[in-house]
Amino acid sequence: MNLSDLAAKGATPAGALLSLAIGGTPGWEERFLTGFDEACRAFGQRQLGGDTVALPAGAPRVLGLTALGRAGANVPSRAGGAPGDRLWVIGTIGDAVAGLAQLRDDEGASGPLVEAYRRPQPLLAAGRILAPHASAMMDVSDGLLLDARRLAEASGCGLRLDLSGVPLSPAFVSARGEDRAARLFAATGGDDYALLVALDPGISPLTLLQPSSVTIAPVGELTKNGVFALVDDLGSVPLPGRLGYEHNLS
């Protein structure tokens, strides 16, 4: 998840700081650190240090991670988009929330959707290629509808998003279908860790990236009017009451 934030800035991983609170189930920390080391090795991320503390019996477990990266000359924020920019999704949407639904029904569930939820894959290579050309870019972590609105608002723009263009994986379609309800479920779910990028209409990621290695889909455009318009092949789509996952800290 931290590396996905780096991907949205076009950054290359440089290191990580881990804060680990020890306590609770015996052996948990050893298993966690084994998995953490595997993830670091897989993405070329070194653990630079951090902090370790002991917890009293019964205390909730606390983990904190900071990932550091090296970015290029253009570090895209979510605030650089302009009216007329086209919006593209790199990756697929909905797999993780569909996997979570399977786990809620059956704790022993497995398969590609569960794997997408448990082991998100940051699109680091795609982010590095897109960053020099992006007007704005962010990762999709809280739901495509919510994060697209955040990008549009930060850029001072409106938004027209085509629900029928939301990229769904074959595994998602097999499990949930691809009608309007399924697409709204996918686009409001979160934990996708795809990239949402705003590009000048004269630039296409289809020419920058290798389509065989990652899914690339146009999903809409930024507009002047400040309105969030959601459409699909059947016409206008009413905005759902919940656009994505809202972090409630109260």
From TrEMBL:
Signal peptide: none annotated. One of its GO terms (molecular function) is kinase activity. Residues 83-226 form the PurM-like C-terminal domain. Keywords: Kinase, Thiamine biosynthesis, Transferase. Coiled coil: none annotated. It holds the Pfam family AIRS. Residues 1-70 form the PurM-like N-terminal domain. InterPro entries: PurM-like_C_dom, PurM-like_C_sf, PurM-like_N, PurM-like_N_sf, ThiL-like. PANTHER family: THIAMINE-MONOPHOSPHATE KINASE. This is Thiamine-monophosphate kinase. It comes from Sphingomonas astaxanthinifaciens DSM 22298. The lineage of its organism: Bacteria, Pseudomonadati, Pseudomonadota, Alphaproteobacteria, Sphingomonadales. The gene is thiL.
